[in-house]
Amino acid sequence: MQNNLKILFIGDIIGKTGRNALSREMKFLKENYSPDLIIANGENLAGGFGMTGSTTEAVFASGVNILTSGNHIWDNKEYAFLLRDERILRPLNYNPSLPGKGYGIYRINDMDVCVANLCGRIFMQPLDCPFRKMDELLQNIKTKIIIVDFHAEATAEKQAFAFYLDGRVSAVIGTHTHCQTADERILRNGTAFITDAGMTGSIESIIGFEPEGAIRRTLLQVPQRFEVAKENAAVNAIFLEIDPSTGKTLSLERIFKYVKD
């Protein structure tokens, strides 16, 4: 009989502050949760916008196994090279001619685990329908354990997506807004859900960035330079325990861990 699969999902890592915070707290996370698989959203790794080779290497070295992303994956010109790495995913519902894959199937403890990444459409780009793209994916894979990073803006769209997939995937984890929500739950048919896993970065900030730029953009309605905030970091994450025989989530825990000074 296989043991339950333990998965740790790290909320959006924001720049150097987030990378350092995760590196410092990874020992605590591993010792306290003993995860079999660690997934993190990394679309903001490099200065808050996109990824680079050095930033992804640092996060993998800290213990992360798979990086998901979102609309900011395209912000750094290195994306074409980075997306050759099967450990890095870009949203499935972008044009298929773009580099990279929107899902991967990974062998973990003699179990196949599918990790999928999709973007929402409300208040975002008019991409292919994420609901229909997930239908297509589910028709073509046999994996029972399926973790979905749904990178979206609107709360209602995230909730609708989770209820639409309830019983067909193990978890729908919302990302993108960088504000951890307190609505973690297991839906009626065994799918874990949280509207947003939050972020790993400075909490003395506006979604991980120094407040001044965001305030000026709001007041003046013109572009401003955003700088990653540096003070008072925290790690936001979700811990899941999944039954490998059914793919259903048995338990979940929302994590908000302040970084030790």
UniProtKB/TrEMBL annotation:
Presence of the UniProt keyword Metal-binding in the record: yes
Residues binding Fe cation 1: 12, 43-44, 178
GO molecular function: 2',3'-cyclic-nucleotide 3'-phosphodiesterase activity; metal ion binding
Residues the record marks as active site: 72 (proton donor)
Keywords, sorted A to Z: Metal-binding
Gene3D superfamilies, alphabetized: 3.60.21.10
Amino-acid positions noted as binding Fe cation 2 in the UniProt annotation, renumbered to this chain: 43, 71, 151, 176
Ranges in a coiled coil: none
Coiled coil in keyword set: no
Pfam families reported in the protein's UniProt record: YmdB
CDD domains: MPP_DR1281
Protein name: TIGR00282 family metallophosphoesterase
